[in-house]
């Protein structure tokens, strides 16, 4: 997903968290301080929640949990920082709102599927052994009390999607409060808006995995968007091409008819949770989204489009 805007908006791009980042503001003087603020926010997030940095707090927590598992305990309780506790709170809220389809307990399943390092590193590797039989993710709940987290034995945390979505919305909100005007933060397709939108609205372009813009949606309120795709974060593991969206019911990358799902919601966390859950829900995705009233554009592997819950139809004469 990308954003296209008129002449009243000022934009810059950067790379962070292993993805493309775009920052847009409505006031030209706001761009330098907003960029500095965003850079600091994302650096802090990376130091807390990266699964690929050995010095991140999340990596240290996962190592401690693995050590405790060797002691034949059913559960282990660990102290975490307020920052990691905040991100875990968001991830557990996502787990609740998706009825467990999206869970922070997917770290071990991602490692088992070969996603144990930055995607560029994973893709550069030579031939790998055929992956073992995946196992459903354990059903006992992760418990968080203040700054203490209790994990079922064998659980490895991954906060990738929920933390990135939360950062997009939180950064947009904080930058708007800090510099004023309108702000849009796009973290690899997770889009959060805050402040006063441009007079002609935010124009959100939905791109598919080929780079083709399928539709542009113009919004004049601060809506949030998120896209989940099974065709972008992919790699070869054994003889199979796999992706990063884990179905906790199987412990393997989701088998789904959807190449891409884009959702619109009041905040980026909800939009991301819905788009990821819809991919995992597979043939039940349209019903799942409609029942919750979440507007979405779904694209299957053959390129066919499906709109649900009031997602706008393509405008007549709109360029694609």
UniProtKB/TrEMBL annotation:
It catalyses: L-threonyl-[protein] + FAD = FMN-L-threonyl-[protein] + AMP + H(+). Transmembrane segments: none annotated. Its cofactor is Mg(2+). Keywords: FAD, Flavoprotein, Magnesium, Metal-binding, Transferase. InterPro entries: ApbE, ApbE-like_sf. It comes from the Bacteria. Its EC number is 2.7.1.180. GO terms for molecular function: metal ion binding; transferase activity. Pfam families: ApbE. PANTHER family: FAD:PROTEIN FMN TRANSFERASE, THIAMINE BIOSYNTHESIS LIPOPROTEIN APBE. This is FAD:protein FMN transferase. It comes from Gordonia oryzae. The lineage of its organism: Bacteria, Bacillati, Actinomycetota, Actinomycetes, Mycobacteriales.
């Amino acid at each position: 997903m990308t954003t296209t805007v008129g002449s009243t908006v000022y934009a810059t791009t950067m790379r962070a968290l292993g993805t493309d980042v775009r920052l847009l503001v409505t006031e030209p003087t706001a761009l330098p301080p907003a960029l500095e603020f965003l850079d600091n926010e994302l650096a802090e997030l990376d130091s807390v929640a990266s699964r690929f940095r050995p010095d991140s707090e999340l990596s240290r927590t996962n190592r401690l949990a693995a050590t405790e598992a060797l002691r034949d305990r059913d559960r282990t309780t660990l102290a975490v920082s307020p920052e990691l506790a905040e991100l875990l709170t968001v991830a557990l809220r996502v787990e609740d709102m998706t009825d467990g389809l999206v869970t922070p307990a997917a770290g071990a399943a991602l490692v088992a599927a070969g996603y144990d390092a930055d995607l560029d590193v994973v893709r550069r590797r030579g031939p790998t052994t055929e992956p073992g039989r995946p196992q459903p993710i354990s059903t006992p709940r992760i418990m968080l009390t203040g700054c203490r987290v209790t994990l079922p034995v064998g659980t490895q945390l991954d906060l990738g999607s929920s933390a990135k979505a939360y950062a997009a919305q939180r950064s947009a909100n904080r930058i708007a409060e800090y510099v004023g005007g309108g702000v849009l933060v796009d973290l690899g397709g997770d889009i959060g808006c805050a402040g006063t939108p441009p007079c002609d609205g935010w124009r959100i372009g939905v791109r598919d995995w080929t780079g083709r813009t399928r539709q542009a949606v113009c919004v004049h309120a601060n809506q949030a968007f998120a896209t989940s795709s099974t065709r972008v974060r992919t790699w070869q593991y054994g003889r199979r091409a796999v992706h990063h969206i884990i179905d906790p019911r199987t412990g393997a990358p989701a088998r789904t008819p959807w190449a891409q799902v884009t959702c619109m919601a009041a905040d980026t966390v909800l939009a991301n949770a819905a788009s990821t859950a819809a991919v995992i829900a597979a043939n039940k995705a349209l019903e799942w989204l409609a029942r919750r009233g979440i507007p979405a554009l779904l694209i299957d592997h053959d390129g066919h489009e499906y709109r649900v819950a009031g997602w706008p139809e393509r405008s007549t004469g709109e360029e694609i």
